[in-house]
Amino acid sequence: MEREKVVLSWSGGKDSALTLHTLLAQKEFEVVYLLTTVTRDYGRISMHGVREELLSEQARRTSIESDIAYITKDATDEEYEKSMSEKIFKYAAEGVTSVAFGDLYLEDIRKYREDKMSKTGMKCTFPLWGKDTTILAHDFIKKGFKAIICTIDPRKLGREFAGKEFDEDFLSSLPRGVDPCGENGEFHSFVYEGPIFDSPIPVRRGENVLRGNFYFTDILLGNQ
């Protein structure tokens, strides 16, 4: 049976990693690209602030090709959508029929994605949709994934959480009202080890810096 070709919207964080893990277990899908939005001016994953070279290390260890939609640091919605549309039409020409997302429960985000994809003829799939985020967070750890908190929104979570390991201690210390998967933008993560990789990525933490309204932890390759 021929598998359906799918592109995964890839941020490098835990929800992306769990989504990929789920897709790989579903034999009807073939994940052909990991698509990431990168801010060209900084050479970093948009919103996550993770260096592009670390993105390359993740893709290499999954044996899935990385593809990047570049935007500028002051990109408008129109610029973002144009960059993404160009990628989607390229995928369609290659026989890709679906784009997978790691969204969990925000209806407005899902509707936005479905509306945009419907204009390209591409289907959307949401493998983690509707699952309990507390269960997902603990399951991520139980499966052997490891991740670092790379971005904090200090309006929602204390800056002291920046750079922490996403582990049971982290989850137990989250204030009441903070989603354990950070689905409301409280935090973002970078995954450096797990069953989707053929080997761990050696990393070390750099400095925590405030840029705009967010605290970012600079994550570096361990051999730097």
Could you explain how this protein is built, in words?
With 224 residues, this protein is an alpha/beta fold. The protein has two domains: 122 residues, Rossmann fold (3-Layer(aba) Sandwich), CATH 3.40.50; 89 residues, no CATH class. The protein is 30% helix and 28% strand. It has six helices and ten strands. Strands 1, 2, 3, 4, 5 and 6 form a six-stranded mixed β-sheet that branches. Strand 1, helix 1 and strand 2 form a beta-alpha-beta unit. The longest helix is centred in the middle third of the chain and has 17 residues. The protein is globular, with a radius of gyration of 17 Å. The mean pLDDT is 95.
Summarize the structure.
This protein is α/β, with parallel strands linked by helices and 224 residues long. It is 30% helix and 28% strand.
Query: Which class of the largest domain in CATH terms?
Result: Alpha Beta
**Would you tell me the overall average pLDDT?**
95
Examine the coordinates and then state which fold CATH places here, giving the name of the CATH topology of the largest domain: Rossmann fold
Named CATH architecture of the largest domain: 3-Layer(aba) Sandwich
Q: If you compute it from the alpha carbons, what radius of gyration comes out, rounded to the nearest whole angstrom? A: 17 Å
- How large is the share of residues in beta strands? 25-35%
Number of domains: 2
- Total E-strand runs: 10
Q: Helix count?
A: 6
Q: Determine the fraction of residues in helical runs and give it as a percent range.
A: 25-40%
Taking the sheet with the most strands, its summary is: 6 strands, mixed
Termini, distance in Å?
45 Å
Order of helices and strands: EHEEHEHEHEHEHEEE
CATH homology superfamily name of the largest domain: HUPs
Return the structural class.
alpha/beta
Flag low-confidence runs: none
Q: Please tell me what the overall shape is.
A: globular
